[in-house]
Each structure stands twice: as C-alpha cells, then as structure tokens.
C-alpha cells in the first residue's frame, strides 16, 4: 500500500549497479519468498475456495464458479454488513482523527508539562484491541458499568445489548479511543513541522488564532492528515475484529456485524467456507480499490512541503 | 504616517537571560532606521518586540504616539519581511499577497486591484499564479516584500531580508528596498548584521552590542565619529586600525615602543585608531610634523581592482592601509604609514571616544 509512496522517495538516491547478475535476485529472494508464502499463496487459496462449495464436514466439494459471489452479493445480511462497515469505518476514522487533532493542538499550546501530556496520551496505543474493547464494555455495561449508570441517571435509556445504535456508538468509541493515541503522535509531529515564522507572519497579516489554524496550519498538516486517513480507514476496516468480537460479537441482531466479522462468522462459526472465501475476495478487492483511489485522487490535493 | 518610539525597552527571558537591556530609540515619520550589530546583540529581539511577537519585559513601545505594549501583532498594523520570507507554501503568490487584506475584510475588487498594482511595481505580475516553491530566491524575496507593501501598513519591519540572497542580488535588492521605502514613505525598521547594508540603507543607524545601543545617528556621522572602539571596529570594511597605547611622561607610546609625539588634550588615551583609507604609505623618511608616522613591513597585498589593501605589521599589531589602484609595494617592503592627526580617533580605557 505505502510501498509505491516509499519507492518514489527512494528512487531519488543514486542507482547502484551490481556486477553479479544473480546476487540481486538472491538479495530479494527472502522478501519474495515471504510475500509468496504469506500473501500470494493464501490469496490464491481464498480465490480458489471462493469458487468451491463444501458440505459442513468437508466430505464433498463441488466447483461452482461464481455462484458463491452471486449468493453473497444477493444476501441482505451481507448488504447490511457493508452498510455497517461503512458507518463504522467512517465514524471511527473521523472521531479518532478529530479528537486526536484537538488533543495535539491543545498539547502544543501547553506551556508546562508538554512532555507529560504527550506521554500520557500515547499510552492507550499500547493496549491490545480486545482489552480495550473489554474496558469499554465494562464501563458501559448496562448492569454493572459506571458510565452506563451515569448515562441512565442523565435520562438516557442506555442499553447497547438491545439497542443497535448504542452498540455502534460503544464500538466506535472503543475503536477510536485506541487509535487516537497513534493519530495524536503524528499530529504532534506534524504541528511541530509547521514553521513558526509562518504562524507569526499570519498573525502580522491580521489573522486571529482560529483563522490561522484553518488557513495556515491545517492545510500544511494535509500530508499528515492524508496519511492518517489511509491508516485509520485500514485500521477501522481490518484491525477492529478483536474489538467487535469482545464488545458486541456483531449484535444485537446483526447491527454491528462488519465485513471482517462476517467473514469470520460465516467461515469459522457457521462453517460456510465457500461464502466466507468469496467474502474475503471481495474484501481484498475493496482494499485494492480504496488504496488506489486514495492515492490517485486524494493525494493530488495534498502539498508536500 | 507613523513614528516609532522605544523608551527604555528591556527583554528578560524566563531563563534569566537579558537580551535587551534598556534601549531607547525615536524614529521619525517616514524614516528608515537600521539596527545593526553582531549576532546575539538583541537587535532581532528588539524588532520582534516592535512587531508584537515577543512580550516586552519593561519600558514602552509606542507607534504613532500610542503605546502598543498590550496590543497583539494582529492589531498593530505592522508588516514584516522575514529572513526566510515565511511565504505560505500552499498558497499562490496572489493569495500570499491577498491574505492580509482578506483578513481585514477588504472588498474583493479592491484586493484585486491592490495586489495587481503592487505586483506590477515589484515585477511579479507574471508570477501571480505560481506557488512559492516554484520561485527563485530573489522572486520569493519580492513576494515577501509585496505581501508587506500591499497592506499599506503603518510600519515596515525587515528581519535580515537579504541574507539568503547571493551577493549580486543582494546589492540590487538593497537599492530597490531603499527606493521603495522612500517612494512609499513608510516608517521602517531594518535589522541586519551587514554593515554595508546598514550604511547604505539607513536614515538613522543604531549600532547595538550586548543588548545595549552603542551609538545612534546618521550613518556617515557614525562612520566619521564612532563613539566607541566597538562601533569603530564594527562599522567600515576593512575595519578601523586600532593600536594599543601605553602612556609615559613624554606622551603615548605604542606597544613596541614607538613614540606618537602628540596626544589629544585632556584625557589619557588608551587606544588610537585610523581608517584604512585615511592613511598613506611612503618610502621617504622625512619628518612629518602633526602626523602619525609608523615604520612598517608589508606582509600581504590584496589587489581588489580599483584599490589595493596593504596588510602591514606596525606598532606591535597588524594594520590595513588602502591605496588607490595598483599598489607599488610588495610583501617584505619596508615603508612608512602616515596618517594625519585630524583623521585619528582616540579612545580611553573604557573604549569610549576621547576626541
């Protein structure tokens, strides 16, 4: 995903010429082997499996061409899961980035204890997704959660076990909370890279603090924001399985069943391997398309330096 | 349009470092004041205090008679040209120049006409659609100037604006800045460590050292009558020749024992100075009453073209003498350096001017 990006920067360095023809191939062989064994082979397997139909005991297998895809794409549960994923990913990425940016700006403004704030704000990143999920689950558990109690005393009928919207809010909070630290780190670095004289020049040009932020600082943060947008979307799409699994298990009903969670559920719980494989192939296509779109269209609007 | 008055301005940083130790300068309307001094003398800090980018620890800064200590940079109506230009990299040249006007709610068509007319003056018309990174150093410098001019502020501040340019461009821009400033008639403060820029640009020259003003005045007055050894050695290139004196009953003598033969009337002088161009060299040995005569050995000759500089050993120190055109002397020559008494500068033990 980021490889083309990095390759573009590296290509600026002078070209190295190997005298031996075999050595360069040997040097890249380990990397190639890992990619082949851990990416292309399983991906090929998934592609192959997505065209098979198997009985639950794995005794009979039938090649069905694209029947699995047709079935999956016509399944209302699958279409629901796409909707859930879009809502969940967008909400998580937006919440995580906005809160992180706010915190980074605040931490930059702090006169004393800057380092302490930064350190404390980075800690949540060290928490494993499932643990983070459990933490939020406990806090907002309708029967024992302290924050759930607080919400109820405010007159909100909080119940993520029955209310799908509440479950989604809880999920987004847990997922975003974990990602905020990461985003915060990058935003702090990004803010520090904005030359101080530009802010001063803008101040002398009559721009107040808010105006300075939106007209000077924010546009200059664009490379950071773009990078985080890619990372956060990928995170929300694929790295949140643990949180979904721990907090809601896709429920109530199927209101929080994301695409990744459905792949797991259909494949490993319901043992409909063909459907599950078809879904992961679709997922793979989505990732490729998403990354291509982000790099081709969004990056154009970004000014590096 | 505006006067700038600094009264006993001080800057003490939280770390306890005193960057500016009480500076008073009065800049009349439409004049260009140059603050010059070595790095760390507090000149930039002083400029930033006028701009409102640094808080003022003590004293007052008044613009147009109004004390602005408590007013932020946004409301002071001052424009500044930064050393690194500080152009907004994500904006086109046009937007860079229009930014300040937009922030002040100027009508759109007025912004357009002002930006375009300023661009014309600065020969930037063809570059309005470019971004800063697509411009050369000199062009960026012009945009920075344009951004300041277009707003028609009360005061211009320049923070070493030419130090990132090459020598040729620097000379050209120096003249342009001077012309622009005179045409626009905007009170300006210009900070530099380059004494040539300081001399050529200033209406009022302020020489600073270690957070204090050493001397204020017209550039040529300062050149002709430096108030201290520091000013004497800082203004002028090559710098003034300085010879350490030791007193004796018969009058001052140099470190190597050469007697001067005369001295300024009252005070005991500790240092004697003369400018490289105020001295002459001669191979003759006749006595010259009322002049400083130093027997020297030429150590090096620097031909510059229109003039040559002779580096000589004299009176226990090294001196430089300027001669017009080609120098007749060559390294190793024994000759005499002669400087007329009225061209001599005398300084006391504390480094203050005596005559």
What does this structure look like?
The complex is a heterodimer of chains A (305) and B (355). By secondary structure, chain A is mainly alpha-helical. Chain A folds into 2 domains: 1-49, no CATH class; 68-301, MetI-like fold, CATH 1.10.3720. Helix content of chain A is 71%, strand content 2%. Chain A contains 14 helices and 2 strands; from the N terminus they run ααββαααααααααααα. In chain A, strands 1-2 form a two-stranded antiparallel sheet. The model of chain A has no long low-confidence stretch (mean pLDDT 82). Chain B is an alpha+beta fold. Chain B has 2 domains: 4-229, Rossmann fold (3-Layer(aba) Sandwich), CATH 3.40.50.300; 238-347, Nucleic acid-binding proteins (OB fold (Dihydrolipoamide Acetyltransferase, E2P)), CATH 2.40.50. Helix content of chain B is 24%, strand content 32%. Chain B contains 8 helices and 19 strands. Chain B has helices spanning 43-51, 93-103, 108-121, 137-150, 167-184, 195-201, 219-224, 229-234; strands spanning 4-12, 18-27, 32-36, 58-63, 66-67, 78-81, 155-159, 187-192, 204-209, 212-217, 241-246, 253-254, 271-274, 279-282, 291-303, 307-314, 317-324, 334-340, 345-347. In chain B, the strands form 4 sheets. A 6-stranded mixed beta sheet of chain B has the order 6-7-8-3-9-10, sandwiched between helices. In chain B, strands 14-18-15-16-17 form a 5-stranded antiparallel beta sheet, with no helix packed on it. In chain B, helix 2 packs parallel to helix 4 (137-150) and helix 3 (108-121) crosses helix 4. The longest helix of chain B is centred in the middle third of the chain and has 18 residues, at 167-184. Chain A binds chain B through residues 195, 197-198, 200-208, 211, 215-216, 219-220, 222, 303, 305, and chain B through 51-53, 72-76, 78-80, 82, 84, 86, 88-90, 99-100, 103-104, 131, 133, 147, 151.
